[in-house]
Amino acid sequence: MPIGGFVVHVQPEEKEELLRELSRHPQVEVFGHDEKGHLIVVLETETSEEMEALVEELSRLRGVINFNLAYLHAEDEVKKIEAGEIKPEIRFHRLRPEESS
Amino acid sequence: MALSRREFLKRTAALTAASLVGMNLPLKVDRAQADADRWVRGTCRFCGVGCRVELGIKDGRPVAIRGVPQSRTNMGYLCMKGMLFYQLMRHPDRLTKPLYRESKKEKFREISWEEALSIAAKKFAESIKNHGPDSVAYYGSGQALTEETYLFQKIMRAGLRTNNVEGNPRLCMASAVGGYITSFGADEPIGSYADIEQAFCFFIIGSNMAEAHPVLFRRVMRRKLDNPREVTVINADPRRSPTSRIADIHLQFKPGTDLALLNAMAYVIVEEKLYNEDFLNNYCTFRVGKEKKEVSFEDYKKFISAYTPEKAADICGGNITPDLIRKVARIFATSPATMSLWTMGINQRIRGVWANNLIHNLHLLTGQLCRPGADSFSLTGQPNACGGVREGGGLCHILPGHRPVKVDKLRHEVEDLWGVPRGRIPAKPGYHTIAMFSAVNEGKIKAIWINCTSPAQSLPNCDKYRKGMAREDVFIIVTDIFPTKTTELANLILPTAFHFEKTGVFGCTERRSQLTLKAIDPPGEAKPEVWIAREWALKLAEELNDPVIKKCVEPFLGLEPGYELPKAIWTEYTQKLTAGRDNDLRGATYEVLQQLPDGVQWPAPTKEWALKGGTYKKFVRGLDPLADEHAIDEKPYQFYGPAHKDHKLWVWLRPYKGPAEEPDAEYPFYLSTGRVIDHWHTSSMTGRIKELMRANPYAYIEINPKDAQRLGIKPGDMVLVETRRGKNILPAKVYEGPMEGMVFVYWYDMAEDRMINRVTKDAFDPGSKEPEFKICACRIKRLSGPKPLKPYLVRL
Ligand code: SF4
């Protein structure tokens, strides 16, 4: 299960509402926040695709400016990939850096 | 009480995140527990920002990543693309054995490295013997390490006697190179990311920074949030994007009208006397035309008088009004420090160099340069387009150390430094990218090595060039980590080591070179490119019976490929080839790069200077050692760039020019392409579509709601997109992104139906030779309702 530690930058005036909203998500745990609008958020998901999708979704919440990854641990997932239990869909080209567009 | 491993990891994650913002969390973790056995430092390779990252290794496998907090590029922050490291490193589809087929109609078979290298050498040698040196070519990448690009181009130029050395940065930043050289006399930005924290006006044009360079954009936003009243963010872009949504002002203009907008801003600056007379008098001249003729400020004023805001607003359309142009020009000129940031939207134009010049003009007129926070700063898409390709000699017209091929003195200097006979490197530049693949089409190139990139997908109008690549008489070698659209057309596929499976340097957008160390072994028989190139050269020397080819790799013989080999290549490149050049990297040895959390910004002629981090701002005395060394007078700024002998910055008179292909009655829409970080769904989707999207991520066509309504297109409907070159069928995303009359398509999808470069136009800038990916004309039509689509993957 990938575990990710994030610094979420939010508009300070939206912070309280966002904290309420985030508390409704079972995969989200808020460990701290400050008056500049930083939230310390830990996500735990089944797969890293799911974490990506969750970050996308949470990024769209009102007041969220951006979602920054600070730390990610995915040992279980790596083992599963090695064992052939999961095969991440490699959208490789799309994830290549900006080559032409 | 001992924590569960899960709880331990969560706390570690939280503490790491909190440390970046100086927050103290009341959490304890047991020091005896470990999340990884060791952490190996490197640079993220998923865009040009150059974030420093550490890969955590446990029991020999990559299990974790974290940002490096002391790094001046990212301060410990990363974006979600970092997640891909694990997946890519341990993925079962990785290429692990050399694969070969004589004919492109056959299936691939596994062969040994010995056999593979012999074939690679034989085919190149045969081609050279029968058709001359210019019948072979190397096409590289802004994702290859500097050591790789440098070694390949050395073998091609001095060994095989051809300048047919190109790379995909031609497609993304050649116009930025042309702009810097013609305006400032030297390639690459004057300033650094550190200017962001000192800027008061951000002028972001032709860039969706929020998505393409997220960690850098965080710095822009932090600056804005901490100083909401003092700082203004202006975004100029035909498309509404996450960047424009955060901006204070969004200038939405018709695609391809940017030159009019920029000249009109200059008009306002001149008319309202917002220019900086001292700066102009001390440091600038005015230039016009191919002959670079010097003209007066009065001539410039006369020229610019044709670009009234009223006229420009007419040309630009969208939400552009004369008042808006005036307002933006005033903020730009009068803010205490203005920083421009741009990328492909400006570069990928048939007049991309001019567009770059016109941005620089605004900085020159107003003197918004060389001071803290004031800079004209081009962003890079790929992690090593600057370091490897621009600096390391990865384009057909430049040798390492920013030396133009055609300058005899500099070419001979390189030959002498390499110890090869004078005259060995041809005086004529090779084929630029579009010319190179046209030569493949015409059968003039018989053997081509494509490294770490997929031109079959990334070239504009790619069907045209895929035909050539499919020719039986063109032998194609591809080095990569996964099958791609280009491996489909290859004869020989060589599996390579991925990032952190080999050692080497990336040079990011801000002139910064950073080392990534090998952390784990590559899978199967995959090898680092430097090893492949060296062994190939030895075989070529035998095949062609030419000792000079061997000479090219002699300093590297027998070295262990994981660290010693790239180190020796880097040492040769920096100590010999960059010595005395503007990108002097002599101080940035592997030892120094390993000591610093974030690497070195050139110029860094000495270790002492490099250990301080190098040069934050070029051309400023006291900040840039070369500015002192090359000073011609007492002035604080010294523009010693190699291309401007007069030591001046040049303000260019560049007329308005629209795109190569504008919409007309037959093809009434603008088609533009680009990338996003990700896009699983949008809030405008219905629940049903949302499920579809989650399961099948693929490219969409973004259509403005007004156009969609007019054409009866609903979210998820299948839409036919036609241009003069071909057609695509894509699902619709109806969305207030593109302006009315414009559609936008993501370019990464490998499915034939959705590969947008099958329809884009391959017109290119006559100066930079960079194609105009961003704009062509198309028509669209609803074909059917939503259809479940399968994501497409290339398999062998
Ligand atoms: S911003 Fe770019 S370099 Fe930084 S983590 Fe994201 S993809 Fe990597």
Layout of helices and strands, plus pairs?
The complex is a heterodimer of chains A (101) and B (796).
Chain A: E1 3-10, H1 15-23, E2 28-33, E3 38-44, H2 48-59, E4 64-73, H3 75-82, H4 92-95
Antiparallel strand pairs in A: 1-3, 1-4, 2-3
Chain B: H1 5-20, E1 38-43, E2 52-58, E3 61-67, H2 84-89, E4 99-100, E5 109-110, H3 113-131, E6 136-140, H4 146-159, E7 165-167, H5 169-172, H6 174-184, E8 201-205, H7 209-212, H8 214-226, E9 232-236, H9 242-246, E10 249-251, H10 258-271, H11 277-283, E11 284-288, E12 293-295, H12 297-304, H13 309-316, H14 322-334, E13 338-342, H15 344-347, H16 352-366, E14 375-378, H17 385-392, E15 398-399, E16 403-404, H18 408-418, H19 433-441, E17 447-451, H20 455-458, H21 462-469, E18 475-480, E19 492-495, E20 504-508, E21 512-516, H22 529-543, H23 547-553, H24 564-577, H25 590-595, E22 600-601, H26 607-611, H27 625-629, E23 649-653, E24 669-674, H28 687-695, E25 701-703, H29 705-711, E26 718-722, E27 727-734, E28 742-746, E29 776-784
Parallel strand pairs in B: 6-7, 6-17, 8-9, 8-13, 9-10, 11-23, 13-14, 17-18, 18-19, 24-28, 25-27
Antiparallel strand pairs in B: 1-2, 2-3, 4-5, 4-19, 11-12, 15-16, 20-21, 21-22, 24-29, 25-28, 26-27, 26-29
Helix pairs in contact in B: 3-22, 4-17, 4-22, 4-23, 4-24, 6-16, 10-13, 10-14, 10-16, 13-14, 19-21, 22-23
The complex binds iron/sulfur cluster (SF4).
Could you characterize the architecture of this molecule?
The complex is a heterodimer of chains A (101) and B (796). Chain A contains four helices and four strands. Chain A has 101 residues and is α+β, with helices and mostly antiparallel strands. Chain A has one domain: Alpha-Beta Plaits. Chain A is elongated, with a radius of gyration of 15 Å. The termini of chain A are far apart. The longest helix of chain B has 19 residues, at 113-131. In chain B, helix 4 packs antiparallel against helix 23, helix 4 (146-159) crosses helix 24 and helix 6 runs parallel beside helix 16 (352-366). Chain B is an alpha/beta fold and 796 residues long. The radius of gyration of chain B is 26 Å and the shape is globular. Chain B folds into three domains: 113-172 and 384-562, 3-Layer(aba) Sandwich (Rossmann fold); 174-379, Dimethylsulfoxide Reductase, domain 2 (3-Layer(aba) Sandwich); 669-784, Barwin-like endoglucanases (Beta Barrel). In chain B, strand 6, helix 4 and strand 7 form a beta-alpha-beta unit. Strand 4 (64-73) of chain A pairs antiparallel with strand 3 of chain B. The structure holds iron/sulfur cluster. Iron/sulfur cluster (SF4) binds at residues 44, 46-47, 49-51, 74, 78-79, 81-82, 213-215 of chain B.
